């Protein structure tokens, strides 16, 4: 069996959380996270936890340099975030945080596609539950869209895995070709925020509670990057997708005024650097991408922690309302500035080091190199905007410093950001390829300072340009929702019209029946009735028990029937009017479902393409 | 072979999931008389065990690993792949689609029940233990049969073989 799987520590911890209350629970939660972090330091590279399952081997623990590297940062930041969110009282929050972190470790250590897929799906479900824990309308909707997007991605991934198994007969990770290659790339792209599969990220992250958004900002996307590093190193299209993501994210980040939305778009942008590094596939590229994973996790979670502390104290989230926090929350402000300098790639902070490595790897890809450089200008500008309008500018605001349980993790993370920048080779020992780069050369420093100086000057002189405005910048979700709206219209009009057409047809039949009953039948019945009555009176002399009475009853019921039919006809007429005036209400649950259905149609198309491929090949 | 195994295992798993769902729905109707989903907001507070069983069974129906429903889905997909006929690829697509469709049905219920505004007076008021016990056994079964697949497959593989060899 060998070593214990690190995810198991979190899963068992999650199961035990309900048995602790109050302070005991806090100590327990932090203790488990600490235990996982310390335990992780002692795991040797190995392959363990092999099981035979449905005729193939399942490997739960595949610890090599790559997975251990990601595992270390996941447990480290997991510990700090759990410390940061210790003030949350709900059991559910801690339980699902643990399950979420555990699932991400499961993805990282998965040694075969089956295990990988299982934890991949668990990651999506636990994240969606974490989003829902905010329990307001917006977060419920965002969580639903999040889950559906990830289930679609998971479905595509599952198809890819199955096709891969069909082609090769093995569940081992790697060795992808053809259609499974494309499907698995797209499936992973849903988590690694490939454009245009990224909409769940800026949609959901600003709408959850702030502790959850710190947590989410770390694991989901990085699990995606890890999967790319494991499966698709050195695929050119991936590298260029990284460049596109870096630019796309930064452009949208510049347009935002909601602080957490700005940071969310920056996740896309920074993940772009990692994807670019991994996609170039050289030792320097992969190492640069992965050390960017490490550094990004530190400074991005620090940024989310800072804005979380601000939300905790002021309950404000929007750059238009914030400002003047430097005096009131000095520790938070300093931590935020350190994180902003790191993400902007200013020496001597850690972002500078890993970005330099990615640039170095991109030396031979001119277009990509300039895409990334351009993105770094945008990053610097948007973080000038973030820190200036969010924290530094003069403004009256009510706030006080965040509690110690929040500031201590923030200080630790900020310290790690500086440490990583000052001693860049600390990471080198645990990186998969152990590449070393002397980043502090005169050329690199002047290059960077020139770039940043220019963008800083732009910000200084054109500050008004960056003034935050409350506006929504339409992203792909706008398109998706429009498509969904079109689909809704399609549902509403043809379906509803079809329904009313049926009504109308029934009404016609009913009318005909009414006419028939009224004219020939009624009059005939009445005539016959009368005739029989007369005859009966003549013959019997009494009305009782005669067959004529029965006939009369029949006529009476016929009349009632015709009355009912008349009513039905009137109803049909009314409905037809409502349709023409567009007042019908069709019971379709919400736009989300429709959005989802559109995605399903896309999926059908994808499968159709697969079929075509298989038939042709 | 896999297809037959998948069919048999799906009989077992589906019977557990569906009966858990029906028992949970029955317990809700017994306790509150509600039949409409729109009235179920906040019922997770009132009947936590029932809704937990319901959620586990629903997630299993969606084919979320590591629950029993996923094992059925996986084995059936394997069976479809084994034939190597492109026609059966459609069935894999349908399996995945049906999982997502199930998510559309079930996820709003779960969201409403646990995270919706609480509409109920009073706190915990779950169904009697005589109702809860069978439901909990079924939910436990869904989890156990999802993780320890050898339990069911040790019986199913011989059964499938016996069916194939007259």
Automatic annotation (TrEMBL), chain A:
Keyword Aminoacyl-tRNA synthetase included in the entry's annotation? no
What subcellular locations does the record give?
Answer: Cell membrane; Membrane
Main localization category: membrane
Name a Pfam family for this protein. Answer: Proton_antipo_M
A cellular component term from Gene Ontology for this protein is:
plasma membrane
UniProt keyword list: Cell membrane, Membrane, Oxidoreductase, Transmembrane, Transmembrane helix
Origin superkingdom = Bacteria
Sequence intervals crossing the membrane: 27-47, 67-86, 93-111, 117-134, 146-167, 173-197, 209-231, 237-255, 267-286, 292-311, 331-349, 369-392, 404-423, 443-462, 594-616
Q: Does the keyword Membrane apply?
A: yes
Q: Which InterPro entries is this protein grouped with?
A: ComplexI-like_HydComp, ND/Mrp_TM
Q: What positions does the domain NADH:quinone oxidoreductase/Mrp antiporter transmembrane occupy? A: 110-381
Q: Could you give a GO molecular-function term held by this entry?
A: oxidoreductase activity
How this chain sits in the membrane, per its record, is: Multi-pass membrane protein
Please report the name of this protein according to its UniProt entry.
Answer: Na(+)/H(+) antiporter subunit D
Species annotation: candidate division NPL-UPA2 bacterium Unc8
């Amino acid at each position: 069996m060998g070593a214990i799987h690190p995810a198991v520590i979190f899963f068992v911890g999650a199961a035990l959380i309900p048995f602790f209350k109050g302070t005991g629970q806090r100590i327990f939660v932090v203790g488990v996270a600490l235990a996982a972090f310390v335990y992780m330091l002692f795991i040797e590279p190995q392959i363990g936890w092999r099981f035979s399952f449905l005729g193939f081997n399942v490997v739960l623990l595949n610890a090599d340099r790559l997975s251990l590297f990601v595992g270390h940062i996941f447990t480290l930041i997991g510990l700090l975030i759990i410390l940061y969110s210790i003030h949350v009282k709900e059991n559910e929050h801690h339980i699902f945080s643990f399950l979420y972190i555990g699932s991400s470790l499961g993805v990282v250590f998965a040694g075969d596609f089956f295990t990988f897929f299982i934890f991949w799906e668990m990651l999506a479900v636990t994240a969606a539950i974490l989003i829902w824990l905010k329990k307001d309308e917006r977060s419920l909707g965002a969580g639903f869209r999040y889950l559906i997007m990830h289930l679609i991605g998971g479905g595509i991934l599952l198809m890819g895995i199955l096709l891969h198994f069909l082609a090769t007969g093995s569940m081992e990770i790697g060795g992808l070709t053809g259609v499974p290659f494309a499907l698995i790339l797209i499936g992973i792209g849903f988590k690694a925020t490939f454009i245009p599969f990224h909409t769940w990220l800026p949609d959901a992250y600003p709408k959850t509670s702030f502790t959850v958004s710190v947590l989410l900002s770390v694991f989901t996307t990085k699990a995606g990057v890890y999967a790319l590093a494991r499966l698709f190193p050195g695929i050119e299209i991936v590298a260029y997708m990284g460049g596109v993501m870096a630019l796309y994210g930064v452009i949208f980040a510049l347009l935002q005024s909601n602080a957490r939305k700005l940071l969310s778009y920056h996740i896309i942008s920074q993940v772009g650097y990692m994807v670019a590094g991994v996609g170039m596939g050289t030792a320097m590229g992969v190492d640069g991408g992965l050390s960017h994973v490490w550094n990004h996790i530190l400074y991005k979670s620090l940024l989310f922690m800072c804005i979380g502390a601000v939300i905790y104290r002021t309950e404000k989230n929007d750059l238009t309302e914030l400002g003047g926090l430097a005096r009131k929350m000095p520790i938070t402000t300093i931590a935020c500035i350190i994180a902003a300098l790191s993400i902007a790639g200013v020496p001597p902070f850690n972002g500078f080091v890993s970005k330099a490595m990615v640039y170095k790897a991109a030396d031979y890809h001119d277009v990509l190199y300039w895409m990334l450089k351009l993105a770094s200008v945008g990053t610097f500008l948007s973080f000038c905007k973030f820190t200036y309008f969010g924290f530094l500018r003069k403004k009256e605001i009510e706030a006080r410093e965040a509690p110690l349980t929040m500031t201590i993790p923030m200080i630790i993370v900020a310290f790690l950001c500086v440490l990583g920048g000052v001693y860049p080779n600390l990471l080198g020992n645990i990186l998969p390829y152990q590449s070393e780069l002397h980043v502090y050369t005169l050329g690199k420093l002047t290059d960077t300072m020139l770039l940043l100086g220019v963008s800083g000057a732009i910000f200084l002189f054109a500050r008004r340009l960056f003034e935050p405005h409350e506006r929504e910048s339409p992203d792909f979700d706008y398109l998706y929702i429009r498509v969904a709206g079109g689909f809704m219209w399609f549902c509403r009009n043809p379906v509803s019209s079809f329904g009313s057409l049926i009504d109308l047809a029934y009404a016609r039949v009913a009318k005909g029946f009414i006419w028939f009953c009224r004219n020939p039948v009624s009059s005939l019945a009445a005539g016959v009735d009368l005739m029989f009555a007369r005859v009966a009176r003549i013959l019997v002399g009494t009305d009782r028990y005669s067959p004529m009475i029965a006939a009369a009853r029949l006529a009476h019921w016929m009349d009632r029937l015709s009355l009912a039919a008349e009513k039905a006809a009137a109803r049909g007429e009314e409905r037809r009017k409502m349709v023409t005036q567009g007042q019908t209400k069709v019971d379709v649950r919400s736009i989300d479902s429709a959005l989802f259905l559109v995605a399903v149609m896309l999926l059908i198309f994808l499968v159709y393409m697969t079929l075509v491929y298989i038939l042709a090949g | 072979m896999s297809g037959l195994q998948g069919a048999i295992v799906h009989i077992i798993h589906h019977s557990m999931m569906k009966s858990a769902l029906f028992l949970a729905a029955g317990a809700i109707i017994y306790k509150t008389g509600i039949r409409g989903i729109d009235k179920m907001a906040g019922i997770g507070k009132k009947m936590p065990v029932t809704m937990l069983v319901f959620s586990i069974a629903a997630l299993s129906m969606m084919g979320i690993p590591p629950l029993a429903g996923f094992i059925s889905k996986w084995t059936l997909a394997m069976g479809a792949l084994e034939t190597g006929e492109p026609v059966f690829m459609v069935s894999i697509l349908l399996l995945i689609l049906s999982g997502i469709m199930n998510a559309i049905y079930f996820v709003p219920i779960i969201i409403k029940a646990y995270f919706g505004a609480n509409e109920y007076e009073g706190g915990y008021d779950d169904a009697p233990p005589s109702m809860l016990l069978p439901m909990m056994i079924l939910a436990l079964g869904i989890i156990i049969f999802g993780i320890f697949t050898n339990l069911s497959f040790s019986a199913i593989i011989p059964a499938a073989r016996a069916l194939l060899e007259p």
